[in-house]
Amino acid sequence: MIKGVIFDVDGVLLDSMPVWEEIGELYLKSQGREGKPGLREILFPMSLEQAADYLIREYDLPKTAVRVVEEVNGMIRTFYAEKAELKPGVRRYLEQFRKAGIPMAVATSSGRENVEAAFRRLSVLDLFQDILTCSEVGQGKNHPKIYLEAAEKIGTRPEETWVFEDTCHALLTAKRAGFRTVAVYDRASRKDLDTLKSEADIFLTEYGDVELFLQQASAR
């Protein structure tokens, strides 16, 4: 049964993970510096503030951490406002869910401003009943609060609500809270592919036949 849907954004609706993987290198390039091998792996687990401190220290940037964070955020805002695109097939899924009367919400770790800017440009913002962010909810996706609040917003129970995620920790959080789960393949999460396939109720390598998906989801 599928009464409601909750979507992650980066790597699920938007093909936006590359900017997060490459932002350190892109920022250094804008400052006339060349990133060293392994920079992506070093920065990925860091907060933006930690990454700023690291870049200043390792690349001798004549800036404060506050300034670096502001400039990086500016680059990210520009990407969402001007460049981020929907993953292939996403629009068809969203429109079909809307046509079927299935309410949809967004649960994202990204900032509201960036998500709304991208969705507004791509003409999908009005398809969602609500957008919830981890910062506004006060918990990351290692805690089910954002999914539970999203389900409350669209008026559905966890067991009849499907959560689309591309990372293991987020998908497992939703699953343990009683939600049905869809793992969406994204290159950034390819190392966790086997776990995503085994843990999710449905695994999508791409947004293919939406009618087939609805049949599969309704049968569970």
From TrEMBL:
<dbReference type="InterPro" id="IPR023214">
    <property type="entry name" value="HAD_sf"/>
</dbReference>
<dbReference type="Pfam" id="PF13419">
    <property type="entry name" value="HAD_2"/>
</dbReference>
<dbReference type="GO" id="GO:0016791">
    <property type="term" value="F:phosphatase activity"/>
</dbReference>
<dbReference type="InterPro" id="IPR036412">
    <property type="entry name" value="HAD-like_sf"/>
</dbReference>
<dbReference type="InterPro" id="IPR006439">
    <property type="entry name" value="HAD-SF_hydro_IA"/>
</dbReference>
<protein>
    <submittedName>
        <fullName>Haloacid dehalogenase</fullName>
    </submittedName>
</protein>
<dbReference type="InterPro" id="IPR041492">
    <property type="entry name" value="HAD_2"/>
</dbReference>
<dbReference type="InterPro" id="IPR023198">
    <property type="entry name" value="PGP-like_dom2"/>
</dbReference>
